[in-house]
């Protein structure tokens, strides 16, 4: 089967990268310009160690698990320990797993302004900056990203990319002409920006940001 070729895809990716950098530069993280030519490794650390280190520097938390079942067990324990009654999870696969088996927890796929936590997936994790990329294609509403007091992101190790350029390239290949209307970069709690240059700071962002990474695909 032949691949589809989309016109001006390289320029489109450059435009997206530029807007993301402009919205983030000078606020809380300096996103590096992509190197000319082939990819250059920017650190001797493994991508997951680099991501964890950079996320911790901006107040986030990352933990790696062997598989999604371990993550589901930890998520249920957190929900019960925190006594959360309004947890939003727009990702159907995770929602179904969380609603199966004991212990029972209350999970909703409908956004509420009074939600206590959000559990979402993501497009990519960027090791060089500790950034999480999410898109409008992943959630019923963009409000979930800045307004959830606690935001827990669940990802597989294959979603971890070294650079922002690599992450954006993969998103472009994934969606083609159906590119999401908004790509949002989350770098630490209460630090969110998107390509429309809408900056969300301080009280208008998650107080707690956790990233749970599965070593196996799900």
Side by side, the strands of the main sheet go 7-4-5-8-9-10
What's the CATH class label?
Alpha Beta
CATH fold-level topology:
Rossmann fold
Number of strands: 11
User: Can you give the helix content as a percent range?
Assistant: 25-40%
Indicate the overall shape. Answer: globular
Radius of gyration computed on alpha carbons: 17 Å
SS class: alpha/beta
Poorly predicted runs are 1-7, 24-41, 195-203
Main sheet specs: 6 strands, mixed
Measured by DSSP, the beta-strand proportion falls in 15-25%
CATH superfamily: NagB/RpiA/CoA transferase-like
What is the end-to-end distance? 26 Å
Name the assembly state. single chain
Give the number of domains: 1
Q: Averaged pLDDT, please?
A: 80
Model description:
- With 218 residues, the protein is of the alpha/beta class.
- It has a single domain, classed as Rossmann fold (3-Layer(aba) Sandwich), CATH 3.40.50.
- It has helices at 9-24, 47-57, 68-82, 92-98, 144-147, 164-175, and strands at 61-65, 87-88, 117-120, 124-126, 131-135, 150-156, 160-161, 183-186, 191-194, 199-201, 208-214.
- The strands form two sheets. Strands 7-4-5-8-9-10 form a six-stranded mixed sheet, sandwiched between helices. A five-stranded parallel sheet has the order 1-11-6-3-2.
- Strand 9 (191-194) and strand 10 (199-201) form a beta hairpin.
- Helix 1 (9-24) crosses helix 6 (164-175).
- It is globular and about 45 Å long.
- The two termini are 26 Å apart.
- Mean pLDDT is 80; it is low at 1-7, 24-41 and 195-203.
């Amino acid at each position: 089967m032949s691949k589809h070729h989309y016109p001006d895809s390289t320029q489109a990716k450059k435009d997206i990268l530029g807007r993301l950098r402009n919205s983030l530069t000078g606020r809380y993280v300096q996103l590096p310009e992509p190197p000319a030519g082939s990819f250059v490794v920017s650190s001797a650390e493994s991508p997951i160690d680099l991501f964890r280190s950079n996320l911790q520097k901006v107040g986030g938390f990352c933990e790696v698990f062997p598989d999604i079942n371990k993550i589901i067990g930890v998520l249920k324990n957190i929900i019960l320990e925190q006594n959360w009654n309004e947890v939003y999870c727009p990702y159907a696969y995770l929602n179904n797993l969380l609603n199966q088996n004991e212990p029972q927890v209350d999970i909703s796929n409908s956004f509420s302004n009074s939600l206590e936590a959000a559990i979402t997936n993501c497009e990519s994790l960027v090791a060089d900056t500790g950034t999480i990329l999410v898109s409008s294609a992943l959630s019923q509403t963009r409000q979930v990203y800045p307004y959830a007091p606690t935001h827990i992101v669940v990802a597989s190790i294959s979603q971890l990319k070294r650079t922002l350029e690599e992450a954006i390239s993969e998103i472009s290949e994934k969606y083609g002409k159906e590119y999401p209307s908004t790509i949002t970069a989350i770098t630490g709690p209460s630090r969110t920006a998107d390509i429309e240059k809408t900056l969300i700071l301080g009280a208008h962002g998650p107080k707690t940001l956790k990233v749970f990474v599965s070593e196996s695909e799900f």
